[in-house]
Amino acid sequence: MTGRPTDTSMQAMTGKKQTEAMLGLQKELFDTYEQASHAWLARVKTEVDFWSDLATKLSSSHSAPEALEAYEKGAAQRMQMAADDGKRMSEDCQKIMHKWTESLTAGWPTTGNT
Q1: pLDDT in tens, 88-104
Q2: Closest Cα to residue 5, out of 20, 13, 18, 109?
Q3: CA 13 from centroid of its chain's CA atoms
Q4: How many CB atoms within 10 Å of residue 70?
């Protein structure tokens, strides 16, 4: 015997590496999804607070110009919130895609290598 690993032991090592890499990827993705989920839940609370606050301002206004001013400020604030949502969603998607890309380029043996 030459002391060289057999094809079977090499396949087992490769399989183990792939399994470990996949488990690592799943954990990283889970953590990324969890962070995004917490951020979006906080965002939902902000949305509820925004609409509640706007309703209070509109119902307590004493004139049409006062109500219009509250509505205009609310609309501007809501537009900013929508822009922030788009940015956050883009960042979350980029994080997830980065994790996938990273996993595909790191440590995955190709079929031709033994």
Answers
A1: 999 989 988 888 887 77
A2: 13
A3: 33
A4: 19
